[in-house]
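User: For my dataset I need records formatted as: sequence, then C-alpha cells, nothing else. Please produce one.
Assistant:
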Amino acid sequence: MHNVASIEIEQDIIQANDKLAYENRTKFDENGVFAVDLVGAVGSGKTSLLEKLIDEMDDDIGVIAGDILSKFDAQRIEAKKVPVKGLNTGKECHLDAHLIEHALPDVPLDDISILFIENVGNLICPADFNLGVHVRTVIISVTEGDDTAEKHPMIFKGADMAIVNKVDLADAVGADADKMVKDIKTINPDIPVVKCSLKTGEGVQEIIDLYKKFQSDKN
C-alpha cells in the first residue's frame, strides 16, 4: 500500500515539473534563448567547460550555476564577466523546473543568446527532472572510472549530447576512454559523444560545433 502511494506521489511531482518545464521552454523560445542543461558529477569538469566555452564561443552567454550550498562555481563564472545566477538547492541533489522558473527573473534573457544551466553535481537525481531546455549535455571524466556510463544509464538515455572529459589523463588513471564512448553509444545509439581534454583543447571545437548545430536545428 505504501509503495503504491509512493509511486502516485512521484508521478504527480514529475507531471507538475513537466508542466513548469514547458513554461520555461516557452519563455526561452519567446526570448530567442537557446538553453542547455549541463549535467555531471562533482569534478567532471562542468565549470571548467563553461569557462572554456565562454572564452571561445562567439555567442552572448548567460549561466545559472546550481549547487547544493556553495557559490564557488558561480564566482568562477562571474569572473568571466558574463551574467550568472547562483542557485543553491539546499538539500536537493538536482535542479528542477520550479527552481529554474524562480531564477529566470534574475537572468537577462534579452541580452543573451545561450543559457547554460550547470546542474548540481550528480548523475542520478537530475535524470527525471526536465528543466525546459533545448539540449541536455552529460559530461563524465575518465577519472571517475571507465564504468561510469554503465553505472548511470538513465541519465544518458535522456541526454542529447555526451562528453568524455580529461582524456589526457586516461593512461595515468588506467581508464579506457574509447570504452566509455562505446558504453554511452550502447545506452543511447543516437547520441553524439565527444572525447575532450580541456587542458589540451582536444574536442572543444567539436563541442562548440555541436551546440551551433543544435541551435540551427532549433531555429
